[in-house]
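Two quick folds needed for the group meeting slides. Do the first one here.
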Amino acid sequence: MGNYLSIYRPLNILFIALAQWLCAYFLDFSASYTSISEGGVYWLILGTAACAAFGYWVNEASDITRDFINNSEPSPVTRLDSKLIYLHYLAFVSVALLAGNRLGVWFLSLFIITLLALVLYSKWLKNIALIGNIIIAALSFVSLYAVYKLFSTVDFLLILHFSILAAFVTLCRELVKDAEDMEGDAQTGGKTVPIVFGVNTLNLVVYIVILFAVSFMLVSVYYQSEYLLTPLRYIYFAYCGLFVVFPLYKIAIDVRHSKSKEEYQQLSKMLKYVLFTGILSILFF
C-alpha cells in the first residue's frame, strides 16, 4: 500500500494544497472560512491535486527503466496492470475537468493546459536541458497565482511574492534532481543540464538562481513588513531570516562544491524544507 501511495507523491500534493488554502485565507484580509469555501477554494485544490497526481503517474510510467537505474529497485507502477494505470489517468483527468468546469472557463483552460504540459514534459520535454525544469517551475508559479484569479480580493503583490518564490525554489530543486538522477538520464537518452553542460555549470546556475531568490526575498520581505504591526514585524523578519533566507544561503554555499548523488539528495531535501517554511510564512498575515 505504501509503495502504491508513493506514486502520488502525497507530501508534494499536500504542500500545494496547503499553500493554496493559506493564500486564499490569509492573503485576503476580508476572507472567512465560509467565503473561501463558497468561492471555490476546495474545487481549486481538488483540480490542482488531480493534475499533480496525473503528472506523477504519467512520469512514473514513462520512467520505469530510468528509475530502476537511479534507485536500484523497480517502480511501484510495474506491479500494476496497464489497464489499471489508464483508469487512474482517466480518473485524474475527469476530476480536473470537473473542478475546472465548476470554477469557470479560465480554470478549465488552466487545468487542460496543465494536463497537456505534464504529458509533454513526461514524454519529451524533461529530456531537454532547462526546458522541462522551467515548465515545472512555471506550473508551481501558476498553482499559487490561480488563487488570485479565483479570489480577486487577495492582495496581488503578496500572492506574487509567494508565487515567484515558489517558482525559484522549484526551479532549483528540479535542477538538483537532474544532477541526482544523472546516471539514469544519461543511459536512457536524457539531455538534461548536468549531462549537456556538466555538473559544474549546473551548480553555478543553481547558485545564481538562489542568490537571485535571496535578493528578491529580502526586498519583498521589506515591502511585506508594511502589512504587519511592529512586534509581529520583527518576528516575521526573524522567521524569514532563520527558516528561509539562511537555508537558501547554506544551499548556495553547498551547491558550489557538490559532486555526488548523496550531496544532491541532501540539497533536494533542504530545498523541499524551504518550500515548506516559505508556505508557513503565509500564516503571519
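Then this one, please, same format:
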Amino acid sequence: MMFKLRWMGFLACALFISPSSGSAPPAPLELRIAVVSDGHAAYFTRLLEASLKLIKQPYHIQYVKDIPARRMWWMLGKDDINLFYGMQSKEKDNDRRLVVVRHGLTNGLIGQRVLLIRHADTQVFAQVRSVADLKRTGRIAGFGAGWGDTKVWKAAGLPLYEHAAPWSTIYAMVAAGNRHVDYLPRGVIEVLEEARRHPELAVEQHLLLEYHADFAYYLNPSVAHYRPIIERALREAEATGLKARLIEEEFGADIKALNLNRRVRVPLSMPPG
C-alpha cells in the first residue's frame, strides 16, 4: 500500500462533457496537494481523484511530498498548497486560513485505535479492561505535537507525550523503553502498515480504543469555491459505493486481520472545542 509519489507536473484529467451536449465543460479544479509520505496517502488521493471523475469534473493536480505535516498545514494557510487532508477538529474548522470540506473520509475508522507497544509490555495491556485500568498501567501514549487526539487523552486523564521532532523517530523511542513514551494509539487503517515497517514494536492484540473522529480535506480560502464541488463528488462516491470499495481495497485485509470484534472496546470521548 506504499504510495510512491514524486514531484509531478500537472496531471490533466481528460474528463469533459461531450461537445454534443451543447454546454461548455466545467473549468478544471487547479489543485496543489500535500501528501504525507507515510504509506497512507494512497487512499486519500485515490478517493479525491476517483470522486471527481465520478461527477465528470476536470482537474489538474500537482502533488507535493516529503515535508513535515506541521509545515504542510502552514503551507496550506499560506496558499503554497491549496488542499491537504488530516484529522478534522473544531480548531481547524474555525481557522480562517482553512476551509473544511464537510465530508468525513474514513467513515470514522481513524477514531478506532489499536496500540503499537513494546513486545515486553504485552501482558501489561492484556489486563486492561477500562480507562481506569489503562491509567493504572502508568504507560504513556505518544502523539505528534498539536494533534487533536491529545485532547481525548487529556480529557480521560491518561498520561501522554507530544513529539515535536519528526514523527518517524518516535517508534525507536517507544522501543527503547526509556524515552518517556510507551505506546502509540494508531488508527485501524494505519497500525498494521506501520507495524510492518517497525518490527521492533508489536501490535497489541487485546484492546480497541474508540472515539468519534475522522479525516477531512481542507482547502485554502483562495479555492473555497471548490468546496461544494468536492463535497458533491464525495457524496456521490458515498452513494454509489465507490468510497466503500476504496476503503475495502486499501484497508480491508488489515482491518480483518485485527479481529476487531474480539477485542475489548474502551470508549473515549472527544471533548468539545
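Slide caption for protein two: The domain at 11-108+214-240 is CATH 3.40.190.10 (D-Maltodextrin-Binding Protein; domain 2).
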